[in-house]
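TICKET: design request
STATUS: open
ATTACHED STRUCTURE:
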């Protein structure tokens, strides 16, 4: 038996479930961010704001607010990484997978190769979600593990004195 702290078993079912959960949370929260921005500014909600790469590149007011919704979504995507993936070593992998699948869907939906602005926005969102997710997961992994002494002290009893 190895002396590793966290034992990791190759589980394809778990990985696929995590990918699906990350993809679902990515689109759910992106949709909520776009809905919030559109309702605040009285824009019409459109599926193009999620999947059409030209919406990010047109330079209009709605385009810039769609960019801001994509960047805000990187924060919620980082939160999803913390709760779904729970491993700092895997945050980059899952963040890249989510954005790669999103890119494939956008290419199919938009029927062409995305504009450079789409690449820039998604690269920034990828970096933000990955770095923030890794940071929070590392903080969680490095948190102190309460030992028996901590539980005894919390119960109000004092440990016996050494003689």
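STATUS: resolved
RESOLUTION: sequence designed for all positions
ATTACHED SEQUENCE:
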């Amino acid at each position: 038996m190895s002396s590793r702290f966290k034992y990791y078993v190759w589980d394809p079912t778990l990985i696929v479930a995590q990918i699906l959960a990350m993809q679902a949370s990515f689109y759910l929260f992106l949709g909520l961010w776009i809905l919030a921005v559109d309702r605040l500014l009285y824009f019409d909600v459109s599926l193009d704001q999620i999947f059409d790469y030209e919406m990010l590149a047109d330079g209009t007011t709605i385009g810039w607010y769609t960019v801001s919704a994509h960047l805000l979504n990187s924060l919620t995507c980082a939160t999803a990484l913390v709760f779904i993936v729970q491993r700092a070593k895997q945050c980059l992998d899952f963040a890249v997978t989510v954005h790669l699948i999103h890119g494939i869907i956008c290419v199919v939906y938009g029927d062409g190769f995305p504009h450079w602005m789409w690449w820039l926005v998604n690269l920034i969102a990828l970096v933000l979600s990955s770095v923030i997710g890794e940071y929070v997961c590392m903080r969680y992994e490095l948190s102190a593990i309460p030992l028996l002494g901590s539980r005894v002290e919390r119960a109000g009893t004092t440990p016996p004195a050494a003689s």
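CLOSING REMARK: The chain has seven helices and no strands. The mean pLDDT is 84.
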